[in-house]
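Posting for a labmate who doesn't have an account.
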Amino acid sequence: MRALRFARTGSLENLGMETMDRPVPQAGEVLVRVQAAAINPSDVKNVLGKMGMTTVPRTPGRDFAGVVEQGPPEWIGRPVFGTGGDLGFRRDGSHAESTSALPPLRSEFPSRLIKECFPCRHCRDGNSSGPRDSPP
């Protein structure tokens, strides 16, 4: 899978796209195919070295939305979103095609929002499958 990675902190120039194995969910976790990931201030501070708990090399990203691909049968195929914990700091985060999530991080996505789509630039450009098909 593709992931945004950094091997040392101190500069956003340390970020780069890499190919790596998909995460393997541990007991009690789910594997989420990431469809959207936010960049929040803690992600930037993380790469800059301002978050003391960060270990490297690392995939940043704390916030995500996607679909469960592995985990308890009742969660497979469900759209979910999550954030927090040590995601992106001591464990690889959401700035990748997949991420593993602990149960406190996963929440079922409100079904009314799934049915409502707004015309993002990918649909306007004729790429309705979204940003995952866009070049890095």
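Reply:
Got it, the structure tokens are right above this. Confidence is low (pLDDT under 50) at residues 128-136.
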